[in-house]
TrEMBL record, chain A:
Gene Ontology molecular function: ATP binding; ATP hydrolysis activity
Domain ABC transporter: 25-257
Pfam families in UniProt: ABC_tran
Signal peptide: none
Cross-referenced CDD domains: ABC_NrtD_SsuB_transporters (cd03293)
Ranges where the record places region Disordered: 1-22
Family: Belongs to the ABC transporter superfamily.
Natural source organism: Aidingimonas halophila
Domain of life: Bacteria
InterPro entries given in the database record: AAA+_ATPase, ABC_transporter-like_ATP-bd, ABC_transporter-like_CS, ABC_transporter_ATP-bind, P-loop_NTPase
Alphabetical keyword list: ATP-binding, Nucleotide-binding, Transport
Name used for this protein in its record: NitT/TauT family transport system ATP-binding protein
UniProtKB/TrEMBL annotation, chain B:
Classification via Pfam families: BPD_transp_1 (PF00528)
Keywords per UniProt: Cell membrane, Membrane, Transmembrane, Transmembrane helix, Transport
Domain named ABC transmembrane type-1: residues: 78-258
Gene3D superfamilies xref list: MetI-like
Family: Belongs to the binding-protein-dependent transport system permease family.
Membrane disposition: Multi-pass membrane protein
Compartments, as annotated in UniProt: Cell membrane
GO cellular component terms given for this protein: plasma membrane
Transmembrane portions of the chain: 27-50, 85-106, 118-138, 144-161, 182-201, 207-228, 240-261
Protein name: NitT/TauT family transport system permease protein
Keyword Transmembrane helix appears in the UniProt entry: yes
Domain of life: Bacteria
GO BP of this protein: transmembrane transport
Length: 284, 275
């Protein structure tokens, strides 16, 4: 990436950070094996090292079963690494915390709470005063376009709307790192790209660093400032890819992607990587 | 181009796979089986096919039921039976709900308590009647104890299972929002499992009725069951049948009450009780 170019864009706060900055999140030779009753341990990931920088959208991409979710769950503090270390702002990660909010692929709306109460939930846990809670929730509900449904219960919402509630709930809680595990995987194509655009704009507005998992190549290229491509056997970071054809800009709309020169080459490159990884997929 | 509706009416048959039935017909059909049942019964009595000493007519039973309430203080017996059910059931729930939720939430609690609880489930509660009578005499305690023993272990197990089925993503979401363990227990686990707890209570209350009747028939001078045993000595089959009828009606009433409670407490659920 061209450093001088990045400086020129810095005022817009959308430039990809130069890698000389202190990383926000840092994984150092992280490994994880799962104990299985009456069976050999499963080595899910081996020797994973990468860093994510402030305000960056970092995407973990790879074939299914390569350990993307495992990495994300360890960053969330939901899973303990077997080896290596994970740090956020230089502090080791020792368990789940408010600073690392996670959005899951499965719907996680609390059915007994209205949309408003769902979005306020995290702030209630953290004893945010009532007035501020209301305000912040209303703001994020507005951002995800659900103001009309603030008093509805989740069962009246579509899948895409439930996922927007989950995103609003996590962002309203002001995490410094937003974690998302295939958050749009269950959505239909149209809702999916609307949500991708929405996510980019609100992550930017809320100044949040994002670490996201996907197995969708187009989604990765569209959203990412940095792609960590993971391989299977062993599950590790195979290649770090900066979509440099975007020249450090964030795209706002999906169609901008198509016109950019370099997009095709990158997609072809990643498709080849996927194919190499897929060819040894005998354990599916 | 319009096709005449009458000429080409869509096929309508009585027995059709997957086809729904209208509400009107559902009610008509559901009522007619009872009319048929009581009609045949009445007919059997009127035509002398059965001994009326052993099988009184349905109208006779209704009449006796009225007399029991109006002239013979049957309300007292019913009240005692209901009080026994509610008394023991409230105590059982007060123990089973917190214990079951904790067992379903924390493996350490489950590992400690479950070996004990699941062993007791294999013992049918009536097996304890002789020893309960020896310990507690013939007062209220042995009946309450039997009802309690009959439901508590199943209730604990049901609630534990439902609690451990609370989706892990819900709990993990709360964890990554910064929730502490007790906060998550109160604000995620309990509300998520509550509808299932009420369903379990409804099911176990029906079982409690079974044990109540057993207790009152075997060792009681009061309550619906005792009234039926007294009636047996004087060959008053109409009173016995009136007792059966009232037990059935009370069971139905409790079931309806629980369903109503479920709708009131959990308006966010759909009709089937799932979110
Ligand atoms: N809790 C677990 N117990 C046992 N094996 C697991 C567990 N979680 C993940 N794995 C294994 O680790 C590997 C990586 O899984 P995962 O991180 O879910 O991959 P991905 O998200 O890339 O599809 C898989 O082989 C999976 O079977
Ligand atoms: Mg996964």
């Amino acid at each position: 990436m061209n450093l001088s170019h990045a400086k020129g864009e810095a005022s817009t706060a959308t430039a990809v950070r130069a890698s000389t900055d202190e990383p926000k999140l840092r994984l150092e030779r992280v490994g994880k094996s799962f104990h299985v009753p009456r069976g050999p341990d499963i080595e899910a990931i081996t020797d994973v090292s990468f860093s994510t920088y402030e305000n960056e959208v970092c995407v973990l991409l790879g074939p299914s079963g390569c350990g993307k979710s495992t990495v994300l769950r360890m960053v969330a503090g939901l899973e303990q690494p077997t080896s290596g270390e994970l740090t956020l702002d230089g502090q080791p990660i020792v368990g789940p915390a408010q600073e690392r909010g996670m959005v899951f692929q499965a719907y996680t709306s609390f059915d007994w709470l209205t949309v408003q109460q769902n979005v306020e939930y995290g702030m209630r846990l953290n004893h945010v005063p009532r007035g501020e809670r209301r305000e912040r929730a209303a703001h994020f509900i507005d951002l995800v376009g659900l103001s009309r449904f603030a008093d509805a219960y989740p069962r009246h919402l579509s899948g895409g709307m439930k996922q927007r509630v989950a995103i609003a709930r996590t962002l309203a809680n002001q995490p410094s790192l937003l974690l998302m595990d295939e958050p749009f995987g269950a959505l239909d194509a149209q809702t999916r790209w609307q949500m991708q655009e929405l996510m980019l704009s609100i992550a930017e507005a809320a100044n949040t660093t994002v670490l996201m998992v996907t197995h969708d190549i187009e989604e990765a290229i569209f959203l990412a400032d940095r792609i960590e491509f993971m391989s299977r056997h062993p599950g590790t970071v195979h290649e770090e890819i900066a979509p440099s054809f975007k020249q450090g800009r964030r795209l706002r709309q999906k169609e901008e992607l198509i016109g950019l020169s370099g997009y095709d080459d990158l997609e072809r490159h990643i498709l080849q990587l996927m194919r190499e990884q897929g060819s040894d997929s005998t354990d599916h | 181009m319009a096709v005449g509706r009458d000429d080409h009416a869509f096929r309508q048959r009585w027995f059709e796979f997957l086809a729904p039935i209208s509400r009107k017909w559902r009610i008509i059909l559901g009522t007619s089986i009872w009319i048929l049942f009581f009609g045949l019964w009445e007919l059997a009595v009127l035509s002398g096919w059965v001994n009326t000493l052993l099988v009184p007519s349905p109208l006779q039973v209704i009449n006796t039921l009225y007399e029991l309430f109006a002239e013979r203080g049957f309300l007292m017996d019913v009240g005692i039976s209901v009080a026994r059910i509610l008394g023991s059931f409230v105590v059982a729930c007060a123990i089973a709900i917190p214990l079951g939720v904790l067992m379903g939430s924390f493996k350490a609690v489950e590992s400690f308590v479950n070996p004990f609880v699941s062993a007791w489930r294999y013992l049918p509660a009536p097996a304890f009647i002789p020893i309960l009578l020896m310990w507690f005499g013939t007062g209220e305690l042995p009946k309450l104890a039997l009802l309690f023993l009959g439901v508590i272990f199943f209730l604990i197990t049901l609630i534990m299972d439902h609690t451990s089925q609370v989706r892990s993503e819900l709990i993990e979401t709360a964890m990554t929002l910064g929730g502490q363990r007790w906060q998550i227990l109160w604000t995620v686990v309990v509300p998520a499992v509550l509808p299932s707890i009420v369903t379990s209570m409804r099911q176990m209350l029906a079982i409690a009725w079974t044990y109540l009747v057993i207790a009152e028939i075997i060792a009681s001078t009061t309550g619906i069951g005792a009234m039926m045993m007294r009636a047996r000595r004087f060959l008053n089959t109409d009173e016995i049948m009136a007792g059966i009828l009232i037990i059935g009606l009370l069971g139905l009433a409790f079931d309806v009450m629980f369903r109503w409670l479920q709708r009131v407490l959990f308006p966010y659920l759909d009709q089937e009780g799932h979110a």
